[in-house]
Amino acid sequence: MDSLLLSKGIFPETFLRKTVEYILSAQRDDGCIPWFKGGKADPWDHTEAAMGLSIAGEYTAAEKAYEWLQQTQLDDGSWYANYQDGLPLYCDKRETNFIAYVATGVWHHFLITSDRNFLARCWGMVEKAIEFVLQHQSPTGEIYWAISEDGQPLKDALITGCSSIYKSLECAVNIAVVLKKDKPHWRKSYTRLGNTLHHHPECFDRTWESKERYSMDWFYPILAGVYKGKAARERIQQRWDTFVKKDMGCLCVSDEPWVTVAESCELTMALLAAGEHAKAIRLYGWLHQWRDGDGGYWTGYQYVENIVWPEEKTTWTAGAILLAADAITEHTPAAKLFLENRLVSELEETADSREVRA
Fold first, then answer.
1. Cβ(318)–Cβ(297) below 8 Å
2. 155-181 per-position pLDDT tens digit
3. Which range of residues forms the domain containing residue 165?
4. Is there a domain that residue 260 lies in?
5. Number of structural domains, the chain?
6. Does some domain include residue 147?
7. Which residues have C-beta within 8 Å of that of residue 153, sequence separation ≥ 6?
8. For the chain, first and last CA: distance in Å?
9. Cβ neighbours of residue 188 under 8 Å, at least 6 residues apart?
10. Could you tell me the CATH number of the domain that includes residue 121?
11. 8, 86, 123, 219: which could join 270 in a potential S-S bond, CB 3.0 to 4.6 Å?
């Protein structure tokens, strides 16, 4: 079985170069990064792949990806859920966690490059996206998962989606602080959402069957920083045997024999955030058997039928591989983005600015 055991300070740059090139090979001339060459794109996965490019030092390509988001953003700050060949694939809904994730990507790129000009260029896009998302925060704190074609919110919420938004709000607040933009209501919404995720599970999955069979509902609240320390470790322990298959990876859903590489990478980072370093290293080491010769990673493996399924090597899976490698090795200044929550204070930012001037 192929394996790759990493440690702090040892980023496998040569090994992962083909994976970077795989993402680059799929990126369109307009900057869009589809799931694979000729495939569809969505704003969340496009951003995940762009973050992989930032880690690899491919700053021009990453910034081109954010320019594509700027060019396709709708007037109200949103994006459609899917695009094909540069055009909306269908317009029936816009998903709030897809829209908010741009803030995570932009902040991630800034952490790596320290490029305030880039941050300033992206501010209008981030501001419009976050304001759109927060329009759909319910009175009880959760954020409705999607907006229908007629502009009405679909009034239910997802734990995974809201956890992703929670991290994106953290990043958006930090962007605002660095650019000296006054957004106190963003902080309030961030606090309300975190409280709802931690203390009010009844606010989620109200109109459909519970999503607890999905592994992301288990570990995303840890990845986003809703659960920390002992509480995070206890949450990991509760369902570890349900979702993790030795020598393979993390299941997508508990009742299907299907391990998926991207979820396994995200779980790797959640484990690091929870202080479960040994588990993280071991899990990530299992994933490279799903790497193809061109550097792309297969989306998943169905172990009962012993087949790769689907027969797709997605760019967002490659992006997740790079994010997890960075988190383990602390290769870039953005390595701890998903391992800790950190709201930058105005005092900190003022001190940083003085150091730069000095």
1. yes
2. 999 999 999 999 999 999 999 999 999
3. 13-357
4. yes
5. 1
6. yes
7. 136, 144, 146, 147
8. 52
9. none
10. 1.50.10.20
11. 219
